[in-house]
Amino acid sequence: DGGITQSPKYLFRKEGQNVTLSCEQNLNHDAMYWYRQDPGQGLRLIYYSQIVNDFQKGDIAEGYSVSREKKESFPLTVTSAQKNPTAFYLCASSIGTVPGNEQFFGPGTRLTVL
Amino acid sequence: AQSVSQHNHHVILSEAASLELGCNYSYGGTVNLFWYVQYPGQHLQLLLKYFSGDPLVKGIKGFEAEFIKSKFSFNLRKPSVQWSDTAEYFCAVNARDTGRRALTFGSGTRLQVQP
């Protein structure tokens, strides 16, 4: 059963701590993306990666970091430098590197900073 | 940089009413356009997309959207909504000739259909 998995579903973090969100896909997609969803603001792009060992900053990359060591995995680290990390985080993937291909989304991780 | 505006933030309709959700984008070049839907507790999923050709595109569950290039719009329509259409709807755009791979999303429209 192909798809995108994100874990955990809910995550709580104390201020000042880094936390890593997992994203795995078995769709054999080349491109992967991280978005942040806030009420009334839609989805905003944090980072994206077109191929293994390469990634680019999105519109709101400050306070976040990523790695892409394997095609199927694209973990996101929310660092203590992120001023307002409480949000719903969505991972997505798409075929190839053609711009604008349909993106498939995971179920999301809701991060709450206490 | 491209941006997407969805002017209706919250829409409440009765079952069988017609639906039109507005979407406007700001980019003068060639675009790919999408509507995604997020049902309560479910993944964001694709409703329909426009890449080229017939500007009237049909999607799943009876939805359709019309691309009007002169108005920079891609409005979503459905002639008769059902209670099960209650969800949040997102318009998204990709500017094909910018090299940007990711999508730019609008702020979303929350649709509530009353039985």
Concise account of the structure shown:
Chain A is mainly β. Chain A is 0% helix and 51% strand. Chain A has strands spanning 4-7, 10-13, 19-25, 31-38, 42-51, 54-57, 64-66, 76-78, 87-94, 104-105, 109-113.
Question: Can you describe this structure?
Answer:
- The complex is a heterodimer of chains A (114) and B (115).
- Chain A has strands at residues 4-7, 10-13, 19-25, 31-38, 42-51, 54-57, 64-66, 76-78, 87-94, 104-105, 109-113.
- Chain A has 114 residues and is mainly β.
- In chain A, strand 4 (31-38) and strand 5 (42-51) form a beta hairpin.
- The radius of gyration of chain A is 13 Å and the shape is globular.
- The mean pLDDT of chain A is 91.
- Chain B has 115 residues and is mostly beta strands.
- Chain B has strands at residues 4-5, 10-14, 19-21, 24-25, 31-38, 44-50, 56-58, 64-68, 73-78, 87-95, 104-105, 109-114.
- Chain B is globular.
- Chain B starts with a strand and ends with a strand.
- The model of chain B has no long low-confidence stretch (mean pLDDT 93).
Topology, element by element:
The complex is a heterodimer of chains A (114) and B (115).
Chain A: E1 4-7, E2 10-13, E3 19-25, E4 31-38, E5 42-51, E6 54-57, E7 64-66, E8 76-78, E9 87-94, E10 104-105, E11 109-113
Chain B: E1 4-5, E2 10-14, E3 19-21, E4 24-25, E5 31-38, E6 44-50, E7 56-58, E8 64-68, E9 73-78, E10 87-95, E11 104-105, E12 109-114
Parallel strand pairs in B: 2-12
Antiparallel strand pairs in B: 1-4, 3-9, 5-6, 5-10, 7-8, 8-9, 10-11, 10-12
* Number of separate helices of chain A: 0
Number of strands of chain B: 12
What order do the SSEs of chain B take from the amino end to the carboxyl end, as H and E? EEEEEEEEEEEE
Largest sheet of chain B: 6 strands, mixed
Strand content of chain A: over 45%
pLDDT under 50 segments of chain A (min length 5)?
none
What distance lies between the first and last C-alpha atoms of chain A, to the nearest angstrom? 36 Å
How much helicity do the residues of chain A have?
under 10%
**Order of helices and strands of chain A, N to C?**
EEEEEEEEEEE
Strand content of chain B: over 45%
**CA-based gyration radius of chain A:** 13 Å
Low-confidence stretches of chain B: none
* Beta strands of chain A, count: 11
- How far do the termini of chain B sit from each other? 41 Å
> What is the overall silhouette of chain A?
globular
Average pLDDT level of chain B: 93
